[in-house]
Every structure is written in structure tokens, then in C-alpha cells.
Amino acid sequence: MKSKNIYYYLVLKLAVLITCHNRKEKTKKCLQNLFEQELPERASMDVFLCDDGSSDGTSEMVNQEFPMVHLISGTGNLYWNGGMRLAWEKALENGSFDFFLWLNDDTFLYKGAITSIVNSYSILEKPGIISAACCDPLTKKYTYGGHGDPSPIFPNGKLQKLKFINGNFVLVPKEIVQKIGVLSTAYTQNLGDFDYGLRAQKAGFNCYLTEEYLGECEYNQGEDWANSQLKLGKRWKIAHSIKGLNMREFIHFKTFHEGKIVGFKSTVDTYLKLLAPKQYVQVRNFLKKKVLKSL
């Protein structure tokens, strides 16, 4: 059995990072659940929440019911990546922390989730990122956690390496922040979590999935930009929208992590699929069969 990481024996300072926008009841449930969590021995927790321009009374609710939370006001245009980055920057301004915990306000943690994710970290031989596996509250099937390339990885009782991390409930140690900083300014809503995990790996750190499910979160199925049942104008809008594919940021992601050739190929492939989704799939499948036959 591996020896336990030194963090297991020290006083731990945890900074929990959350962002929200106009879903007061979910945010309230998230905070209630968070403050009911039993912390690891010798651990303390500070919560930094960015309310990104909510108009439903979220900030008032937080001030009244959770005065211990560090409440940060966003512009209303930060979305997930921008809101989490702002919360992270405020946490760094407010003191020194051993770990930073990302938490989505639609993720409901199981009892002992924080202790469990810290214990998972304690068996690592060197600093790494731990991403928690989450399941659907009704079906109990996997929804979030992380992926290999390209399939999702399911919890199996052991820590497993990930290529891509989902940002629902993630533990990041200070050593990684000191090396690569916080979430990138290149992303608005999506891809910031994938990007952070990949940058950490390029810097020599590994990303892992927890041994078991640590919480519940419904799968957020957005509109499909390649749905042939939609008119071209609608597909185009989804492909370029912040909560859709966000074409500009997607191509930047592909280019930054896989190079200019892959970035160019992704641009061509995406626009071909966008313009003629049915035909694109037919040609792709035909070419795959030809390649398989030639092997």
C-alpha cells in the first residue's frame, strides 16, 4: 500500500469555489448540503461564491442565510468559466489555501464527500487533480467525472487516470495552482475544465477519477448543433453560441492542445457537419468502412 501524502497529517485549509446565476433554490440547496458536510480532521473550509448578476434574489438569500460565505458579484456575463475564475482569484487574494475545491451549484454531495476526496488525494505519490464521479439522482447512472479519449470512465473502486476532467466537484492542490495558475481567460462557459486538466498534465501532474460516486448531478443535455432535424440557421446559432459549441473557443482549444493542423482539420470537419449533418455522417461512415477493409 502506498504511503499517505503529507497533507493527510497537516492542518488543511480548503477553499470551495462556486459560481451561480438565477437558480436561487439550487444554490441554496447546494450551500445547505455543503455546510452539512463533515470535514476531514484538522481541516477548515472557506467558501467563495460568485453570483454572476442574478436577478432572483440569490445574493440576498446568501447574505441572509449563509453570512459566512465570501460573496462576489459578477457582471452577469461571466458564465461558468468566468465566474469560477473570479471566485478563484478572490480566494487567492484572501489567504493561503492547501486545496481548491470546484463545486457546481447543481451538484448534491453525498455524506462524507469532502473527506473522501481528500483521502483519495492522500494516497497519491505526488500532487494531482482529483475529479469526483457523479451520477443521476434518479437512475444512479454516471453523468459527470471525467473521460479517457474519448469515452467516459466509470468508478471501479480504484483511482483511475483521466485525460479530461468535468468541473462538477474537483480537488486541485496548491502546487498545481502555483505552477499553472487558475482557469484560462480563453473560455467562457465550456472547455475551461477540460483545458485546465490538460494544462496540468502538460505540466507533469496527473488527473484522477474518484474510486466511487461522491455526489449526484443531472446530465445537462444542451441543444445539438449537428441535429439534422433543425434548420441550418438554428444549427448555426447553436454552434456559435456561448452555451452551444462556441465555435471560436472550440477551435482555439483544439489548436492550443493538438496543434494548428488539428485545429484546421477541426474547423473544416465542424463546418461540413454543420452545413450537411446527414451527408457528413454518411461519408464519414463510408470512409471508416473503407479503411477497416484495407487493414
Automatic annotation (TrEMBL):
Residues 16-121 form the Glycosyltransferase 2-like domain. Gene3D superfamilies: Spore Coat Polysaccharide Biosynthesis Protein SpsA, Chain A. Signal peptide: none annotated. Keywords: Glycosyltransferase, Transferase. One of its GO terms (molecular function) is glycosyltransferase activity. Belongs to the glycosyltransferase 2 family. PANTHER family: GALACTOFURANOSYLTRANSFERASE GLFT2 (PTHR43179:SF12), RHAMNOSYLTRANSFERASE WBBL (PTHR43179). This is Glycosyl transferase, family 2. It comes from Algoriphagus machipongonensis. The lineage of its organism: Bacteria, Pseudomonadati, Bacteroidota, Cytophagia, Cytophagales.
